[in-house]
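Model the whole thing, not chain by chain.
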Amino acid sequence: MAKRHFVPKADKEYTKADFTSDQMVKWCPGCGDHAILSSLLNTFPKTGHKKENICMVSGIGCSSRIPYYVDTYGFHSIHGRACAIATGVKLANPELSVWVNMGDGDSMAIGGNHLIHAVRRNQDFNITIFNNEIYGLTKGQYSPTTKFGQVTKTSPFGTIDYPFNPGELVMGAQGTFFARSLDCVPALTSQVMEAAAKHDGTSVVEVLQNCMIFNDKTHAAITDRAVRDDRTIVLENGKPMLFGKEKNKGIRFNGRCLEAVTIGENGITIDDIMVHHEDTEDTGIHMMLARMSGDLPVALGVIRNVEKPSYTELYENQMDECKANGKYKCVDDLLNSGDTWEV
Amino acid sequence: MSKNQIVNKEDLVVRFAGDSGDGMQLSGTLFSDASALTGNDIATFPDYPAEIRAPHNTIAGVSGYQVHVGNHIYSSGDKCDILVAMNPASFKSNLKWAKRGASVIVDIDTFTDEAMEKAGYTDNPFTEELEHAYTIIKAPITSFTSRIGQEQGADKKTADKCRNMFALGIIFYMTHKKLDQTFAYLERKFAKKPDVIKLNKAVLSEGYEYADKLEVIHSHIFEVAHAEMPKGRYRNITGNVATAWGLLAASERSGRRLFLGSYPITPATDVMVELSKHKALGARVFQAEDEIAGVCSAIGASYAGALACTSTSGPGLSLKSEALGLAVMTELPLVVVDVQRGGPSTGLPTKTEQSDLNQALYGRNGEAPLIVVAASSSANCFYWAYTAAKLALEHMTPVILLTDGYLGNGSQLFRIPKVADLPSITPRLAKPNDPNYRPFRRDPETFAREWALPGMEGLRHRVGGLEKCPDGPLSTDPENHALMTYNRQEKVNRVANYIPDQEVTGNPDGDLLVIGWGGTAGAITLAVEEMNNEGKKVAYTHFNYICPLPKNTGDILRKYKKIVVCELNNGQFAGYLRTQFPECPMHQYNKIMGLPFEVGELKECFTKILGE
C-alpha cells in the first residue's frame, strides 16, 4: 500500500514570526529553553504544514510552558502525560501535526511508561526532550538523567541512581527516529527537528539543555567552545564519522566496541572510519552511538531514522478497510443484528 | 407430555452452577435466549470467580449463572426454583441459593470420593434432611455424555465439554420449552465443525429424553407466564454491550467521532471489547498502556474534537483522578464509564458493589465538580451512556457514568430504539474565524464554553491544567480564580435545569419513602411492589441523576416522615443526601457482600421501619 500522508500542506509560506505568540516568555534569562524555542519556531515554516493543523502538547515543568509561547493550538497538560494526551489528539484527528515537549523528569520519570509505549507503537508525533539533568521548576532535585554521584537538594551525599540515556530508551523500545542536539547550537537543533518532522512515526529529539540556576554547566564538558569539537561528533548520513577541530579524528569499530582514533596515527586511514547509516534497521550500532561518552565524543545529529509504518497509518488503513467491508453501515443495523424478535 | 403435571408460574429462577470451564455461563445464556424468544421477560446474573480456571472441583472454581424468567422481571431473582450443580463443589456452595422445595439436578457421576473430599465433604452429601427439603435429581450426566461421545467417535475431552448440554436438555424439558432455538445457535456457532454440532445436538436431545423418562420430573414441569410487554422489536443485551452501543449511538447522533481510550479491567473490559469490533461504525478504540494513558488519550481526543470516552472500574478510576481534574479545568467533554466492583483496592473484582460513589463525586484535588449519572438496569445502560455523552457534549464537562458488575455482566430484554428517535445532541462547536472567540466565553444559560478544535481556522488557543482567565491566558489573580471556580461549579449546577423531575413510584402517599440509586432498581422495585400488594403503603424514588440532583429532590424528601436509603455500600448516597437536605432524617439499608439486594431482605427492612 502506498505511503499515506495525513497532515494538509499550507497554501502559503510562513515565517518564524507567524508562529511567535504574544505571550511573555517567562523562562530565566540565559536559560537554554529560549534557544530551543527559537529553533522550533524556525522549524515550523520549513515543515510546510498548515498552521492551524499544528498542535503542541506538553507535560509539566519549565520546558512544558512552551505551548504558550508558540502561536498554534496547544495543550499544557499534566505531569508526565504529554505522550498519552498526544496519542489521543493524533488518533482523533490524524490531520494534525503533533509536537510533544517534555523535560527529562517529565518524560522519563513520571512519564516514562507513556514515552516507551508511544515509541513502541511508532505513534506519529514529534517529541522533543529538554534534558537539563535536573528538576528545575521544583528547584533542583535530581532527575532520571542526573549524573551518578551528583549532589543535589535531594541527594546531599550524592545520587546513587544510575541515569537513563534517552537514546538507549528509545532504541530499546524499537524507536524509529532519534536525534540529539545542543541548546547552544540552534542551527543543528532546527536541522534535526526538520528531519524529525519529515519522519513518519515517533521522532525523539534530545536537546542537551543548560539550567543555569539549578544545574549550571552540567553539559559544559562537551558544550564549551574550547572542547566542543573534540568532545562531540555531528553524525551525517552516508558520511564517515569524523570529528575534531581538524576533522582528523574518527570513530572505528574494533571488533568489540567503538573507539575514537586519529587519522594518520598508528596506520589509521579514512578507510578505517565507520560510515554513518541512520537507516540501518538493526539498533545495535545506533545504540552504541547513542551511548558514546567519556573517551568517545557525544553523538549529535540524526542517529537513527528508519522507515516503519506509523501507528496512524496502520490505524487509518484498518479503519478504512473496516468501513469498506463492514456489515453494519449505521448503528440501527447493529441494534437490529443477531437474534431479535417482534412483540 | 400428557403424563406431566404442569405447574403454572408467574416467574421462575434457574441457577446453573459448575466448575469454571463446565460451560455454565453458556448454558445460562442459551436458556435465557430461548426463554426470551418464546415470550418471557428475562434477567440474568453471572456469578463467577476472579480466577479463570481455579483448581478442578474446588469451591474456588465454582462458576454460576442465574436466569430469572417470567412476566415483569425486574431482577435476576433471589433464590432459585431449579438448581443445576455439575460437581460436588458447586452443589455445596450453591445450595444456599435454592428455595426450599427446589428441584436440584446434580451430575451424580462427579460425586467421587476424591471430588467430594476436595469440596470439603467428609460424609454423604445427600443427607436425609436435604433429600426431604429438596427434590434432588441424581442424573448420570457424565456417563450418558461419554456414551454418546463414544458412539460418535469423539474423544473424552470433547465429549466432556458437552455435559452442559445434557443439563440444559433437562432444564428445557422441565420448563416446557423446545430445542429448536438452541439447535439453531449450535449450527451458527459451529458452522465449520459439523461433528461438534452433531455431538452437542445429540447430547442436548439425550438430556431432554432422559428427563422425559424420569418419573420424578413429571410433577416438576413449569409453564412460565409470558411477558406483557410494550410492542416493539426486542433483543437480549448485557449492560456492558448496552453501554458500548449507547456511546456509538451518541457518536452517530452528535456527528462526533467516537474515541475510547481504555485499559483492561474487570468487570468493565467488555465495553472496550465490544467497541473494538465496530471500526466500521467509526469507533476509534485505543488500548492504552495503563489507566492513566486511557483517560489522558481520551482527553487529548476530546481536545481534538471527538466524543471521547474511557471505561474502567474502581481502581482504574482512582488512577484517573488527576486527569479528571485536568478535564474539569480544561472544560472538555468526556465520558468516564465506571463499572463498579467490590473495593477498596483490588477488592472483589468479579462481584458487584456501589462503593465508588464518593470517589466519583469527590475524588479529585481542588474544587472539581463534574456530572455523575447512574444506570439502573442492564438494558438502560444504553440510554444512560447516551445521556452521559449528550450532557458532556452540550455542557462541556466530564461526566462519570456509574454502572456496576451486576448490570454490566447481567442481561435483560432491550426494546430496540431507532437512533433517529433518540434526543438530539448539539455539541457546542465554535465557529471558525469568529473574531469574538475566547476559550472560556460562556453560554449565558448553561455556562458551557465553546469547543474550538485544532484545525479550525482563526481559533488558535491553548488549554491546560493551570488556571486561566476567561479570555484564555494564564492567570493567578485571586479574584479570577474565585470567578472561574464559581463558573465551573455553576455550569454543573445548571445541568439541573435540563434534566427531568425526579419521580415517585409505588404508593406516593406511602408512610415510608424508599430511596435507591443505580443498579439496585430491580430488587427494590419488586420489594416495594410486593409490600404495596400486601397492603403496606410504601413510596419509592430511584435516582439516575446523581450530580446534580433533580431540582424537586428536596420537595420529595421533605414530604415523608420516614425515609430509607438502600445501597450496596456503607451509606455514601445517604451521606450525600444528608449534606444537601440536613432537615430530612434518613434510615439506611446497606449491604457489602459483593452481591445484589434480595427482595426478601429489603421487605424485612421496610417492614421493620414501618413498625417503629
